[in-house]
Amino acid sequence: MDAWPRCLERLEAEFPAEDVHAWLKPLQATRRDDTTVLYAPNAFVRDEVRDRYLERIRELLGHFAGSPEVALEIGSLPRPAAIAPAPAPGAARAFGGVEFQGNLDGHYSFDNFVEGRSNQLGRAAAWHAAQKPGDRAHNPLLLYGGTGLGKTHLMFAAGNAMRASNPGMRVLYVRSEQFFSAMMKALQEKAMDGFKRQFQQVDALLIDDIQFFAGKDRTQEEFFHTFNALFDGRQQIIMTCDRFPREVDGLEPRLKSRLASGLSVPIDPPDFETRAQIVMSKAAERGTEIPEDVAFLLAKKMRSNVRDLEGALNTLAARANFTGRPITEEFAQETLRDLLRAQQQSIGIANIQKTVADYYGLQIKDLLSKRRTRSLARPRQVAMALAKELTEHSLPEIGDAFAGRDHTTVLHACRQIRTLQETDGKLREDWNKLIRKLSE
Ligand SMILES: Nc1ncnc2c1ncn2[C@@H]1O[C@H](COP(=O)(O)OP(=O)(O)OP(=O)(O)O)[C@@H](O)[C@H]1O
Question: Which amino acids bring their CB within 6 angstroms of ligand 1?
Fold first, then answer.
């Protein structure tokens, strides 16, 4: 079956890596006469592939297999008897009529997740959940934070670790949109019993981006029941959300409190050192040689999220490959010029002052004034520390921009804010939100 790997290669170039990993890689292909049969491990994968990729797959098969005929079915290729592993306990239980096969992307593991201050707790929580799935100490586990910070990575890592220690474990990964569309379809087809049963049969449910349920009352209600059934059955639930559920408008109060009833852990944007380490680790993973100064350059300029950082690295690697040039700092500056400029331009000191003033409900002139009341002094320090963190300006330049303050005042502000981030949860939250706002 040569055509499918070639199609997959093309699809990998056309769609985001995470989507390819979640939906296309789990497919198994075989030939039946003129038809390419694609086996999806479960109904979620089948539906997603049918709705989003099938048209393109047909075109590619027409090209590579000589016939666009394709049948998309739930199932798997029969494994050769000689190498079939002995069934683990529970492995043979049916899932939607076929042996359960998860749709976890095996690429994401704890080993290739770079740990730093921003994600240490999240990593530990996911790891513990994987060691003792269903344990009340971390069930449900909710990982929340901004986009592209590694929540899905950790979720997959936990699922993969569960299956590594117990291959019979039925772990299902579902994006919230899919839960929604599968439910709508089940409602239309009056097949809700089957829909519900799918979830009762899993040992762990990983559900991504639950903020998507906001404003969708019927879906929330259904999810609420699914959630309770899993929870009562001591099945592990891991969820991600782009913010703490209490802050998501349009989620029902009882669901909000249920979601946060186990262990909820924030994933914050990584600091500079962690960003640099991530670049090095991703480069090593893909076999790209990247000098330290280039990793530092990327880490310094690309603060908003790891996905963009990875994107920049991929662009560099592709360009180096294409031109045959080595990746040097000059090459990186040149190749990523527009990208780096765009990041740079959006963040100036004036912009930071305005964003911080708006955030705390102040006027810019208050922020710049000499008044030292705490309600002004703290936001002012936050703004100065942000200017140091997010721009290239020196301490004296930042001091100047804050109504001619001395550089030692700025330095003191930076230190103070760094210390407070360790001890003051509210300040840490403000800081991360502001970084996110400014990096958008
Ligand atoms: N600490 C880390 N170490 C290694 N890779 C990381 C780390 N953090 C993020 N990544 C990588 O960044 C990319 C985006 O991460 P991921 O998809 O998990 O983000 P997310 O938080 O789930 O975002 P979203 O809310 O947009 O779905 C992935 O390729 C992931 O491997």
Answer: 18, 113-114, 119, 147-153, 209, 240, 242, 278, 306-307, 310
Distance CA 153, CA 302 (A): 19
257, 283: one domain: no
How far apart (Å, rounded) are the C-alpha atoms in residues 131 and 135? 9
Single pTM value for the model:
0.70
DSSP E strands, 75-134: 94-95, 98-99
Indicate the number of domains in the chain.
Answer: 4
Task: Render pLDDT for 150-199 as a digit per residue (tens, 0 to 9).
Answer: 999 999 999 999 999 998 899 999 989 888 888 888 889 998 888 888 88
CA dist., res. 287 & res. 345, Å (int):
32
Q: How far apart are CA 112 and CA 153, in angstroms?
A: 9
Segments forming the whole domain that contains residue 395: 349-439
**Domain shared by 381 and 370, yes or no:** yes
DSSP state string for 308-366:
HHHHHHHHHHHHHHHHT----HHHHHHHTHHHHHHHHHH--HHHHHHHHHHHHT--HHH
Distance CA 252, CA 111 (A): 37
Residue 306's nearest CA partner among 144, 151, 175, 106 is 151
* Main-chain phi, psi angles of 288, to 5 degrees: -100, 130
ipTM beyond cut 0.85: yes
CA of 434 to the centre of ligand 1 (A): 20
